[in-house]
Amino acid sequence: MIETILLPSDFSATAVNAGIYAIELAQQVGAKKIVVYHTYDAASVSDPMVSYTQKIVTEPFRQKSAAQLNEFIDKLNAKNKSSIVIEAFHSYADLKDALNELIASTGAQLIVMGITGGGVFKETFIGSNSVNVAKSTNIPVIIVPTETSFSPISNILLLSDLNNVADTTPTEAIKNILDASKAKLHVLNVTDNTEKAEASSDKQQLGKLFEAYNPTFNFMSNPDFVGAVDWFVKEKGIDLVIVIPKKHGLFETLFKFNHTKTLAFHGKVPLMAVKK
Description:
42% helix
């Protein structure tokens, strides 16, 4: 069950779009609360007596953050057609640390964040931190491209390298989104040997883990990993792509070599990163 969604925001168009997505997702999955969080900037003061620039939090920065937060909440409430409660928090803190503290205090089960395209010069603070947050938090993170408009989640794609799935698959988190959305589960393995992958014990193990959801398994041999995923997403009408960050193996490249960022930037389908 997903009851609370955590929504980091920098009040950009990217964040507004992610906020609207979060509201409509909450309505679909029956979430009761969205917690908006903003980390505000501070004044930079150079002290000739020290060798570094010190950040000093001042009351005007806090007040500006509070005003922007209230305006942002008003925008979300205008889209809130149900009884979902929207709460707000802000502080001067490291984003990842603050989010982990809020996860502990609010019991949030899911984070929704935006991400934009067009290169680093157009990237917002929240967008540029989305992938880092996905790697550092212990709850799923849905990364929403700016071009994405919400559509009910009816088809979910799980990307799997079929490597040690029993120990590396975050089964309960994936089941949670499947139960909440009532979506169909598709599994895709991009490999250079489809026959070996289809006959592998890991494929059988993954099938057992999600047996109750009757998953469909798909195998593709394509040196262009991103291209293969993009084609499959369009062909099958996928509404959400699940990726599993790993320390070793094929899926480390999703983050290390920016394949996930590429998918999120150029695709229109949200990605959900789920750690074991």
